[in-house]
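Session log. Operator J.P. requested a structure for one protein chain; no other inputs attached. Running the standard single-chain path with token output.
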Amino acid sequence: MESIIRCVSKEELQGKSNYIIIDVRTNEERDNGYIQNSIHIPIDELVTKLPELPKSKLYITTCGKGGGRSIKAAEILQKYHLVSQWLCGGTMAWRENKR
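Structure written below.
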């Protein structure tokens, strides 16, 4: 079954401020580079951290290349009534396109 949650690009986020990027990769993956000002919540810990997340924000989930885990994380957030999308191209694309 295909996800109905769409991805959002770095360009679409420019000029917006009411969002939080959640990096859902492992500690080891994050050690290899991450998006500045993102928060790190490995996907396996996401459900337990939900009470700490304000409901008033848009959550952008990211993993390495975008897709698998970031889509799953966005779906988890939406299941718990948080507004979420996943980052097109993931952390790698964001960092390659440093504007």
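Operator note: The chain has a mean pLDDT of 92.
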